[in-house]
């Protein structure tokens, strides 16, 4: 594999990453990191300094969202905290921004704290299939942790060399890799893929950014640079506007870059038009559930069909250059693995009745970062297959009562002085429409589809699940087909909608 950092210095994009042009809106700092790698510092003349080969490195390989999506209005009214006198974003706002990393040359002792960070989806290198790398933490990495680390590096290298011979002898005796590798030190290399929301990234930095965690210093240093370059305005908010000299150099460096017209995504093979339309929720007969009022629209995504394969394929030396991802993905699904499928994330917006929204979010399978009632109400259709005898005029009666509840709620809301928004939430009937924005990964998407496509689920909720499955089949078709082949997901029987609203 070519040295990404040497290529980055020349301005070329990394060779191991296959970028394709897309139409997504550009975040300048994140695009720079995506194409050039993550610096570990910056020189006095404003040039980024990159880790050298074998040093601990954090590669950004995809992202979703940009800070402009969540920045407050100019008056700061969205997040204004009168006690601190500056704006503070909510955790749900920060969860709208997702970063996908490939972390290399981490000592195992440094990788474990990363895994302990709640909210991080992670798939670590395994020595079960591929030979463990014959390397330990580099002298530069150790110096970043402890200062002068030449002696420590020598001791660790000698110890590893001796233990590696023992490891090979244990393998020769027929002992499994899992048991044999137990003699190797925790200073040996590992690598992993991980997905973090910006909220988790900030909490991770805040927790480990002190002198009591020397093993995490080089990790935290690169994470802070990613935070600053990728989200400079939010970084300034959390720093309360006070940047040190090094941070100011990075700010000047970013400001010196001119945004280009092209943005890139790794291994993107899907049609961009998929993300430009509303998917109307439809009935079993193919007609819209309630005209064009119930819909789902994909807004962004992070990761592709290739991501789970790469996250595990690194253990076999089998990354994106593989001719086919299907055999490995099929094996992962058949064995019940979940972490590789938590790395690929879908962002969407939807408009549905509140009772369907309640059914969807109750299993905690998706992150919801915004929701609101809108001034419209859904009138359910009484269906014969719901297991009860229908009285004459039942549908008309349900429609009258539904509309009466909605109209009365609107009247009462108008009559209340003050706290209008809170009153609206309390009075709204559960048939009233809501709009919400959320994100979900493949593992949790399959889970919620199996729950909500079941015949015991309410009809409207089943129809939403069908629509989500249709989106899934277009989003990552190879992974989708593998779940079907392994009978982890039922075939989509619902007909295509007769009309799609752009």
Features:
502 residues; alpha+beta; Gyrase A, domain 2; 5-stranded antiparallel β-sheet; 4-stranded antiparallel β-sheet; globular; disordered N terminus
The main sheet comes to: 5 strands, antiparallel
Number of helices: 19
CATH class of the largest domain: Alpha Beta
> How many β-strands, per DSSP?
15
Radius of gyration: 26 Å
| CATH topology grouping of the largest domain | Gyrase A, domain 2
Q: How much helicity do the residues have? A: 25-40%
What is the number of independent domains? 2
Which percent band covers the strand fraction?
15-25%
Strand order of the largest sheet: 11-12-13-15-14
Looking at the structure, what is the overall shape? globular
Spans where pLDDT lies below 50 across 5 or more residues: 1-17, 79-86
* Terminal Cα span: 44 Å
Notes on the structure:
- Residues 1-17 and 79-86 have low confidence and may be disordered.
- This protein folds into 2 domains: 4-132 and 188-262, 2-Layer Sandwich (Gyrase A, domain 2), CATH 3.30.1360.170; 272-378 and 431-485, Gyrase A, domain 2 (2-Layer Sandwich), CATH 3.30.1360.
- It has helices at residues 4-9, 28-36, 91-94, 108-115, 139-146, 150-172, 177-180, 198-208, 217-230, 232-238, 245-256, 306-313, 326-334, 354-361, 394-415, 420-427, 442-452, 459-475, 477-485, and strands at 19-22, 41-42, 48-49, 57-64, 80-81, 86-87, 98-107, 121-124, 189-197, 263-266, 279-280, 295-302, 345-353, 367-377, 432-441.
- The longest helix is centred in the N-terminal third of the chain and has 23 residues, at 150-172.
- With 502 residues, it is an alpha+beta fold.
